[in-house]
Amino acid sequence: MEDMTWGRNPVLEALKAGRPLNRILLAGGSRGRAREIAARAREQGVPLQIVEQRVLDSLTHGAAHQGVVAYLSPKSYVSVEDILTQAAAQGEEPLVLILAGWEDPRNFGAILRSAEAAGVHGVIIPARRAVPLTGTVAKASAGALEHLPISRAGNLRQAVITLKNAGLWVFGADPAAPLNYWQADLKGPLALVIGGEGKGLGPSLTKACDYLIRIPMRGKVGSLNAAVAGSILLYEVLRQRAGKLT
Q1: CA–CA gap between residue 49 and residue 98 (Å, rounded)
Q2: Which of 66, 83, 129, 204 is deepest in the core (most CB within 10 A)?
Q3: Strand 68-72 with 4-6, pairing
Q4: Taking the model in full, what pTM does it have?
Q5: What is the pLDDT of residues 177-191, one digit of tens each?
Q6: For residues 196 and 234, is the Cβ–Cβ distance under 8 A?
Q7: Domains defined for the chain, CATH in brackets
Q8: Could you tell me if 193 and 160 are in contact, meaning their C-beta atoms sit under 8 angstroms apart?
Q9: What DSSP element (H or E) covers 26?
Q10: Rounded distance, CA 226 to CA 117, Å?
Q11: Considering only CA atoms, which of 125, 22, 147 is closest in space to residue 80?
Q12: 106, containing H or E segment
């Protein structure tokens, strides 16, 4: 579960101090300091959701929340540029993982564990409609979250364009792709886009990718767990970068 704080002063002070926040819930019709909270949240890129008062009552078990609840993150988010800077500082070709629409915190934690082990320089997730960084994610990552920069993008397609402008090739995982993953050249500066469980990339992200690759399925099951599929692709990148491409 996510940690929470509530009350106008505590939430506002958390924003002022730069405390990592996953999202803020505001009761509809809130005024006064709630407007300042909303303005700071938008300025800092913290997702803001307007809800009914009873939703906050339920979340806080009737505590004096003053119409505002904030979900806390165990880790600060970084920018896409920070991820690229880290790769450059290590003298390595960038390897960025983009996760679109992942909603299961255990799967999210599992792919973070694989990403850190495979040498990924940073992970990009959407600001909305995806699982945020939580204690459950941190636990499932087995400590990997502490070592991986995570960027939260308001628009994943724009993040892809930013990476392409920085010289990265963007590969998307798509079960209908004509290219098997081992046939692709994954040795250069690279961003790998993987959709969440049963959702895929969506038309916009699919079109933004330079190439689409697939993991062939020989059995009766139609797809792999998203974290398993992502791990396979990441280790193919690692294999090729080790100079073992055949």
Answers
A1: 24
A2: 83
A3: antiparallel
A4: 0.80
A5: 999 999 999 999 999
A6: no
A7: 4-72 (3.30.1330.30), 80-241 (3.40.1280.10)
A8: yes
A9: strand 21-27
A10: 17
A11: 125
A12: helix 105-117
User: Could you tell me the two tokens for 184?
Assistant: 């692709």
Which pairs count as long-range contacts for 38-43, CB under 8 Å and 24+ apart, including other chains?
A: 40/12, 40/15, 40/16, 41/15
37 in Cβ contact with 9 (< 8 Å): no
Mind listing the pLDDT tens digit for each residue in 97-115? 999 989 899 999 999 999 9
What's the token pair of residue 140? Answer: 């499932």
* Token pair in block for residue 132: 């945020």
Cβ proximity of 151 and 124 under 8 Å: yes
**125-148 burial code (b ≥16 CB/10 A, e <16):** bbbeebbbbbebbbebbeebbeeb
Distances in Å between the alpha carbon of 189 and those of 147, 229, 236? 20, 20, 14
The residue with tokens 């926040």 is 21
